[in-house]
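protien #1 (seq + structre)
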Amino acid sequence: MSKEEKDMYIMGSLVDSCKERTKRGKKRIRSRQTFMFSGEKVCRNTFLLFYVIGKHFLHNIITHKNTHGVTPRKHGHLGKKPSHSLQYDDIKLVVQFISSYADDFGLQQPAAPRGRDDTPPIYIPSDTTKKDVHDKYVESCPNDRHVRYSTFCNIWNQCLPHIRIAKPRDDVYMCHLRKTSKKCSFRGGKVGGSKKDAGTHHACTG
């Protein structure tokens, strides 16, 4: 039996033993219930024991029945959006911050990994953690409204999977790329370089 079916069954087992109007013709505020089980009258405690419910649950059932009749109960917040829920602007701010951070401190690879046709990955140095990035994001948030670390990581993984924290071996490769890039640019701008240098520069740029 589902929760809704149980609620309806219990409401059907409650019988109002008082009239809706008092002797003076006023609407009765407090009602007296007769508790029924298998067609027999039982006391309140026996009723609670048979249906395995508590006093608070029974009070809510009686209040709902007196107010709305024998109808299914609905949660008061049903259909309402909580004030602390994640909004589009919150996600947008996280994505913009991570992208900006990657532009400043990350190193973009020339192409996507072999066998994958997507965005080339951007590696952030391995001495930085996502927690460090989140702390800086919190400091930059206006009005002290920010997402928590777990939500921050979920947005990062779903929206920006190509931005990654480098592993130590990736750092070695990144350093090699930086040195190669500087070496090639230096040789390309050197005046009066030898043929050997020119050939090396051609190999680097080619």
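ok now protien #2
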Amino acid sequence: MTIYERTERAITRFAAGLALLGGLGLIFATLVTCLSIILKLVRRVLDGMFGSGPIGDALPWLHAILGEEELVTYGVGFALFAALPWVMIRSGHIRIDLFEPVFGRRLNRFLNLIADIALAAIAYLILTRQWFLIIKKARGSKEPFGNLLLQGDFAQAADRISTNQESQILGLPLWPTYIVAEICVAAFLIVACFCVWRSARDLFKNPQAGQ
């Protein structure tokens, strides 16, 4: 087995595992939505039978889940970010196949390479821009965040994490969600770089090799 084949197998397994992990986000979002609907429906039925006052006093917890929209957003967002590497490795992104038979194999492989390079660049841009949602920029004489970690000054590094943003309903800090998204985008970038290698390899492969 060649280095390329080993890398492809490892990258594919990694992307599949991350996508399966992201599926837990969809399960969480589905459970929260269903539970909230059931609680809301039961509350309306009981209010219609006994009145809202007695039910509110006896069962104050019987209502739609507070912050349901935010919780569902977090679950679906995690699922989407976690699925990016799998979609990339399987070439599951949007493609227009109308002219594919006309272009020929060589041109199609070249277009695949250009598309993979573009997606790798997009992944890099998302990764770098999202970083500053987590870490405050070093201003003036302040040390960069990476230098603080290398120096072992973890207290100063922790102070550089942007913790002032919170969700509107539940008041949850947003920086942990940014970190999770950053990890998923980093995985997306790694897979995208491998896909560039794969497309370049297919483009410059010897046609006489049976490919």
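The chain has one domain: 3-209.
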